[in-house]
């Protein structure tokens, strides 16, 4: 579960955060002002301080916020001066933007606020379209504007070059005031809410910020995204009345509360119009009592009325933002907030505690029950005497029963100390008034009993104490709230804003003399007496005024430590046991068990075993996809016969019994010949495939289908354990293991044999045994010291914990520790296709030869919104279908791409020759499983690489580089064998986003930019882990690279057309190399190991039975003098997407071939039978 924060404000205006992995409220120490409201996203938190200004707190991250400022310098050629600054009157400015319409000299760029700083001075960009330009960065064209090239031609009359300067946002983890505009200032703000990050992924980190002013106006903050976290300007939204509170969800839901108690809903919110178009009025849940508060999520709306009742709005979704009706819920609250995953938090009416709504799931959005969050604050500590009644409700209430000699003062809420009081049994129970720090909400709540208080003077809760108790009492005019009277009930206060001002403490003689003459106004409260050290007693919970979970990622699977102090007591108890004691106990217990085993076993070794051999059989019924045509499913009986010999070795045989032409037949396979068991989950059947070396060559496994998913998992776990037992494999994967990932996200490992890279007779690739490891990933990378990282489909980074099993592996097939819950989210895509006709324009009626009007990317399979299901029953939908605008080639405003015909090259604009168009729809689904993986928050990654070490390596800190999903290059610090997750990220500056990275021996770091160009990082060393600069490496001619892998001395890349390239001329003195040499085509991924061994995932491999896509291939003949190898050996295939051999540093055995002329030389042992191997230089002949 990613660590995220729940934010809250107490009645003193202090801001706290509670981590999903923590057990106490952490106070924001850097807040210089008291705050009224906060609203959060996962990357930042906004707040309104008591000065009514808005402040922003951007969470610290290893990934900096950098904004690239750019301007263009333009020159024209003339016969006298050549290229010069003298332009024609009709030309663009000498310094301009890319269009030439805006004047942009270098000195016109200023920092937008004090929260920014310049990284460096202006410099010329010498990269053009992925290729280096000549010295000076000039690009040439015939005229302005035209197509520019990096080469100067005879007709080049104009030239330009781009100047770049970066500014960095420096106000991280601190509250920075949002700068005010020079004109059109909004009036002071009263409420604020952020959301809208799910409306569109572009631009990155876009947020919608809504605010309500004291005059009831609604404002929208425009231009908030990752590179501009503060936004640009305020835009006023017209509203049908005076608004008192507003709530914005992660998607397109925005609701607000009117002064009269009605609610309004914003309509028309979308990707191109995040502020919406119009308001729709929705009646209050109760006709007699108006609403005072509303909270919205993705598909839910919660509201609170003036009588503190909680209401849930049913039928709310993006198509019907108004919903269909109200449902009354249990509980009385003063405010409510909906966070991520539609989880709900609220503040109780009576106790002012923070409550969490349990049981909220996608199928039960209303949840089941309220549960109070009971964790301490970071400033809580024990006191010598606990106060029976504490300062309550923003300092407006406390017990006046002070005995004897006490401290007489008025003090700051930051420095209160407990005073002695009467026993709790004798003190009257204090009444906690319902106070918020907002004037509008407060006055609305007080309106429910207007007859109780008609005084318009100070915001004081006046309460009397019994004069017989002997206290000295100030008159009510002094602004002091006293203890409640036994005879008369307390009066409801007149509500106001609460501004806390520090007062000075004074000591007094005997008796409690209250010396405060300050009065209250609508914006302040009386000073405080009883100079307490803390505002709350040691045994009392804090009083909360506001809570926000907009950045708190919690779901029904989250394990939270917020609700009980039992975990703290267990933790404190376990801390009393030192690691040294634990180690001593383990050693003592192990010695005792060893002595007992020796004592009980040694005396009976001369007896023969009672049972020499055991045989057991497990049978079942399944369906089998028969080998001959016509292929179809057949009902078969399936049996596993397993036996063990006298030495304890185990083996077994699989039998498949079937009937063909009324004749009983069977198919069998030896367990020790099974190389892999692959689950193949789909909607119709629960199937899995069994491979042997022979069937791997044929590309035709044994395919079986179980009746239920549970039965399939039972068989897979049993067969996996049997295969491991027959090969003597137990426990977690070794440090030398080869890892691979299928296109479905399943993870497999193989233990390499010493002869895998032997020359001239290596172990055939199809004889490798692969076993599954729990979890779900898209990419895995490893090295030979045991550091293994993975990346999920949702770009979440995971680190291997050292366990094995997980997922459907239970019992002996899985380790009991180091197994954690893992989640993954990915998008499912379908395409809407249309053809143009002269009568109706573009329509969903195509030609008879056209593709389906709703299809997959290929157009061969029909995929509609209703019949498209998640990849397997393990996945569940977590969003609705939405148009995807982030398609390669660009789209128009409605998401359409145009082309001349199906299929063709698509573009994001319409021309006269475009007769077809398509747009992509996306829907997200989520998987929850278990495996030996722990999350590495908080930056999502797209690629990762780890230094490949040799078996004798003694590297203490392992270099690890990564690329974020936004293209930033990162270096992980503190990665060791004991702490494989590392400690922090170090950002490495780049001029453009990257997509692939790899580090080889001697800290060679190569990377691929998103434009397909290659780069080499110079001067990387243990002393300088991030290096100093990037060197641009020209790509192969007319090719765009997409992936790179670096070994000991070899550098391999794969381009977007599936070609594999080898970098020639790489030497220690010239690590950039000299040129690219083509090795093979039909390659999807490449992995180069620490011994320069080369493995790939081939796109298509033809077998004797079928064609398989995504096949593991091994490059043969790789030697120090021949690093490019000679041919390919084919291994497991059919749906593989990734492989890494960067952990296999096992040196192959040296085989000395005997001389043919020496008759005395001994005859060589018979090597493994060599296979027919392709020697055409390509992965496949196709």
From TrEMBL:
Per the UniProt record, which residue ranges are transmembrane?
none
Write down a Pfam family by its short name: Pex24p
Question: What does the UniProt keyword field contain?
Answer: Autophagy, Cytoplasmic vesicle, Lipid-binding, Lysosome, Membrane, Repeat
Kindly state one GO CC term assigned in the UniProt record.
Answer: cytoplasmic vesicle
Q: Does the keyword section mention Transferase?
A: no
Q: Where in the cell is it found?
A: Cytoplasmic vesicle, Autophagosome membrane; Lysosome membrane
Q: Which SMART domains match?
A: DysFC, DysFN, PH, TECPR
InterPro entries assigned to the protein according to its UniProt record, in alphabetical order: Beta-propeller_rpt_TECPR (IPR006624), Peroxin/Ferlin (IPR006614), PH_domain (IPR001849), TECPR1-like_DysF (IPR010482), Tectonin_beta-prop (IPR051513)
- Segments of this protein annotated with the region Disordered: 413-436, 459-496
Q: Which residues form the Peroxin/Ferlin domain?
A: 64-125, 137-170, 823-884, 895-928
GO terms, molecular function = lipid binding
Q: So what family is this one in?
A: Belongs to the TECPR1 family.
What is the protein named? Tectonin beta-propeller repeat-containing protein 1
Q: Where is the PH domain?
A: 616-726
Q: What is the lineage of its organism?
A: Eukaryota, Metazoa, Chordata, Craniata, Vertebrata
One Gene Ontology term of the biological-process aspect is: autophagy
């Amino acid at each position: 579960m990613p660590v995220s924060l729940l934010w809250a404000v107490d009645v003193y205006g202090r801001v706290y955060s509670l981590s999903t992995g923590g057990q106490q409220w952490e106070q924001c120490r850097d807040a210089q002002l008291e705050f009224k409201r906060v609203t959060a996203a996962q990357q930042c938190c906004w707040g309104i301080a008591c000065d009514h200004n808005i402040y922003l707190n951007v969470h610290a991250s290893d990934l900096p916020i950098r904004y690239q400022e750019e301007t263009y310098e333009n020159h024209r050629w003339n016969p006298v001066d050549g290229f010069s600054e003298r332009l024609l009157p009709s030309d663009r400015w000498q310094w301009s933007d890319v269009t030439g319409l805006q004047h942009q000299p270098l000195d016109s760029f200023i920092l937008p606020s004090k929260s920014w700083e310049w990284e460096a001075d202006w410099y010329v960009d010498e990269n053009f379209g992925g290729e280096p330009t000549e010295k000076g960065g000039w690009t040439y064209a015939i005229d302005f504007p035209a197509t520019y090239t990096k080469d100067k031609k005879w007709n080049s009359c104009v030239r330009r070059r781009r100047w770049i300067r970066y500014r960095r946002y420096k106000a991280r983890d601190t509250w920075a005031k949002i700068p005010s505009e020079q004109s059109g200032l909004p009036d002071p703000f009263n409420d604020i809410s952020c959301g809208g990050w799910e409306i569109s992924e572009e631009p990155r980190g876009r947020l919608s910020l809504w605010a309500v002013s004291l005059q009831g106006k609604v404002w929208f903050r425009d231009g908030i995204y990752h590179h501009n976290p503060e936004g640009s300007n305020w835009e006023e939204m017209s509203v049908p009345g005076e608004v008192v509170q507003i709530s914005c969800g992660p998607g397109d839901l925005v609701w607000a509360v009117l002064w009269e108690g009605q609610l309004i809903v914003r309509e028309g919110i979308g990707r191109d119009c995040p502020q919406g178009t119009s308001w729709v009025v929705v009646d209050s849940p109760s006709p007699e009592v108006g609403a005072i508060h509303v909270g919205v999520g993705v598909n839910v709306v919660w509201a609170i009325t003036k009588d503190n009742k909680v209401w849930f709005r049913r039928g709310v979704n993006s198509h019907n933002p108004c919903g269909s009706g109200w449902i009354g819920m249990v509980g009385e609250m003063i405010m409510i907030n909906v966070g991520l995953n539609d989880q709900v938090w609220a503040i109780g009416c009576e106790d002012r505690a923070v409550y969490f709504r349990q049981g909220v799931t996608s199928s039960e959005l209303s949840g089941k029950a309220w549960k109070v969050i009971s964790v301490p604050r970071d400033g809580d500590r024990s006191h010598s005497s606990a106060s029976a009644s504490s300062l309550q409700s923003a300092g407006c209430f406390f017990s006046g029963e002070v005995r004897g000699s006490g401290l007489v003062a008025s003090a700051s809420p930051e420095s209160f100390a407990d005073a002695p009081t009467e026993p709790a049994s004798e003190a009257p129970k204090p009444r906690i008034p319902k106070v918020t720090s907002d004037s509008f909400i407060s006055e609305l709540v007080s309106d429910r009993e207007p007859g109780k208080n008609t005084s318009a003077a100070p915001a004081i809760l006046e309460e009397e104490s019994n004069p017989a108790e002997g206290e000295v009492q100030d008159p009510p005019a002094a602004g002091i709230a006293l203890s409640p009277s036994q005879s008369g009930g307390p009066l409801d206060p007149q509500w106001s804003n609460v501004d806390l001002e520090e007062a000075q403490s004074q000591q007094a003689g005997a008796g409690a003399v209250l010396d405060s003459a300050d009065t209250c106004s609508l914006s302040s409260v009386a000073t405080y007496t009883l100079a307490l050290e803390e505002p709350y007693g040691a045994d009392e919970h804090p009083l909360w005024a506001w809570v926000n979970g907009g950045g708190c990622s919690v779901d029904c699977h989250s394990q939270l430590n917020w609700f009980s102090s039992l975990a703290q007591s267990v933790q404190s108890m376990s801390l009393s046991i030192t690691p040294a004691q634990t180690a001593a106990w383990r050693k003592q217990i192990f010695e005792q068990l060893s002595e007992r085993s020796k004592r009980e076993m040694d005396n009976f070794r001369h007896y023969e075993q009672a049972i020499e051999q055991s045989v057991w059989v497990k049978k079942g019924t399944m369906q089998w996809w028969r080998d001959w045509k016509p292929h179809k499913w057949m009902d078969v009986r399936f049996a596993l016969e397993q036996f063990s010999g006298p030495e304890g070795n185990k083996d077994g045989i699989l039998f498949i019994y079937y009937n063909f032409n009324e004749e009983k037949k069977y198919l069998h396979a030896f367990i020790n010949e099974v190389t892999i068991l692959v689950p193949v989950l789909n909607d119709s059947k629960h199937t899995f495939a069994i491979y042997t070396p022979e069937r791997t060559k044929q590309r035709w496994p044994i395919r079986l289908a179980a009746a239920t998913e549970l039965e399939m998992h039972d068989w897979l776990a049993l067969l996996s354990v049997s295969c491991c037992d027959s090969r003597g494999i137990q426990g977690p994967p070794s440090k030398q293991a080869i890892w691979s990932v299928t296109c479905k996200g399943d993870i497999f490992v193989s233990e390499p044999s010493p002869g895998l890279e032997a020359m001239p007779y290596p172990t055939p690739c199809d004889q490798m045994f692969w076993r599954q490891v729990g979890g779900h990933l898209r990419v895995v990378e490893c090295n030979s010291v045991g550091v293994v990282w993975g990346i999920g489909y949702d770009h979440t980074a995971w680190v291997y914990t050292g366990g094995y099993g997980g997922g459907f592996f239970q019992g002996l097939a899985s380790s009991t520790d180091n197994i954690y819950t893992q989640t993954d989210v990915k998008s499912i895509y379908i395409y809407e296709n249309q053809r143009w006709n002269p009568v109706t324009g573009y329509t969903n009626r195509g030609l008879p030869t056209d593709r389906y009007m709703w299809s997959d990317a290929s157009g061969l399979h029909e995929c509609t919104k209703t019949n498209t299901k998640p990849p397997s029953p393990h996945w569940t939908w977590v969003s609705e279908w939405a148009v995807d605008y982030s398609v390669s080639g660009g789209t128009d405003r409605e998401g359409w791409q145009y082309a001349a015909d199906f299929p063709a090259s698509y573009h994001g604009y319409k021309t006269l020759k475009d007769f077809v168009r398509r747009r992509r729809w996306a829907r997200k689904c989520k998987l929850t499983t278990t495996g030996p993986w722990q999350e590495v928050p908080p930056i999502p990654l797209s690629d990762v690489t780890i230094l490949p070490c040799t078996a004798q390596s003694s590297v203490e800190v392992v270099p690890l580089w990564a690329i974020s999903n936004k293209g930033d290059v990162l270096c992980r610090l503190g990665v060791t064998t004991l702490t494989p997750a590392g400690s922090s990220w170090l950002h490495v500056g780049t001029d453009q986003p990257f997509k692939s990275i790899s580090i080889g021996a001697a800290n060679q770091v190569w990377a691929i930019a998103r434009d397909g160009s290659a780069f080499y990082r110079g001067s990387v060393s243990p002393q300088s882990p991030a290096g100093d600069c990037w060197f641009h490496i020209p790509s192969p001619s007319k090719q765009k690279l997409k992936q790179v892998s670096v070994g000991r001395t070899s550098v391999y890349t794969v381009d977007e057309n599936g070609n594999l390239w080898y970098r020639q001329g790489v030497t220690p003195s010239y690590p950039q190399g000299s040129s690219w040499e083509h090795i093979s085509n039909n390659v999807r991924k490449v992995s180069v190991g620490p011994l320069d061994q080369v493995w790939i995932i081939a796109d298509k491999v033809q077998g004797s039975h079928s064609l398989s896509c995504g096949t593991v291939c091994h490059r043969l003949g790789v030697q120090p003098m021949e690093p490019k190898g000679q041919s390919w050996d084919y291994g497991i295939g059919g749906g593989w997407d990734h492989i890494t051999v960067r952990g296999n540093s096992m040196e192959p055995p040296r085989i000395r071939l005997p001389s043919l002329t020496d008759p005395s030389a001994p005859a060589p042992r018979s090597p493994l039978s060599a296979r027919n191997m392709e020697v055409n230089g390509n992965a496949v002949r196709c």
